């Protein structure tokens, strides 16, 4: 199932070029009282939501996808985990480019050495909201990535058991200011984590390790690769992340970007595609 959030927090099931408005399926969610859960309740209850959404979809009103403003398919992730340098050729381009490694090639460490980093959850938007460049004086790059949404609590999970903890997948854009600061600082401005266009449930992606991914800017292909070239697989990333902290339903893992990162400027039009997931269009706007 392809589950999207759109307009003012509505829920949709995507079918071809339309979506069915199944917002009423949210009624299966528990009423929460303060202190609210710090994980995403919809993803935690995804099986119940899917069942209700399926029952509602046939009689639900339809909306053309190109008329909907798509939001992040996960509303409230507890954390956004991200892998640095998880493709060999991207590691090479960082080592070879002083603008990327900040005159310190030793910064170009593999994901096994560097570990994972976190992006602020306040940086999360959907494709319909767009990227707003925080500071046009700083180089700000696109990074297209497979994004994994955790479905079940995972603590010290082995790679063999990891995939049972995945709810589904989406396209992630890890928008990144280049510079000497810590990754979490450079990659956390508002709108610098784009997730969309929808959540594709894990049953529709039997092998996340064989997906073509691509990003075009103004019609020009900038990055094109396949997830089989990831250094650590999805299962290994879950093992690594959950070795250090518990992953909760709705937590998102950005799995790293392939070679071809390049700067964005206000006015750019992004089109990002991952096979079996879909295509999303994202505009780049000026925030200064
Ligand atoms: Mn990245």
Give an overview in words.
The structure is a single chain. The protein is an alpha+beta fold and 288 residues long. The strands form 3 sheets. Strands 1, 2, 3, 4, 5, 6, 7, 8, 11, 12, 14 and 17 form a 12-stranded mixed beta sheet that branches. Strands 9-19-18-15-16 form a 5-stranded mixed beta sheet, with no helix packed on it. A two-stranded antiparallel sheet has the order 10-13. A hairpin with a 3-residue loop joins strand 1 and strand 2. The longest helix has 12 residues. It is globular and about 60 Å long. The protein starts with a strand and ends with a strand. It binds manganese (II) ion. The site of manganese (II) ion has 7 residues, from loops.
Task: Describe how the helices and strands are arranged.
Layout: E1 2-6, E2 10-15, E3 18-21, H1 41-44, H2 46-57, E4 62-64, E5 70-71, E6 80-82, H3 88-96, H4 98-101, H5 111-114, E7 117-119, E8 124-125, E9 131-133, E10 140-141, E11 144-150, H6 159-162, E12 166-174, E13 176-177, H7 183-186, E14 193-201, E15 212-217, E16 220-226, H8 234-244, E17 252-254, E18 269-274, E19 278-286
Parallel strand pairs: 6-17, 8-14, 9-19
Antiparallel strand pairs: 1-2, 1-5, 1-14, 2-3, 3-4, 6-7, 10-13, 11-12, 11-17, 12-14, 15-16, 15-18, 18-19
This protein binds manganese (II) ion.
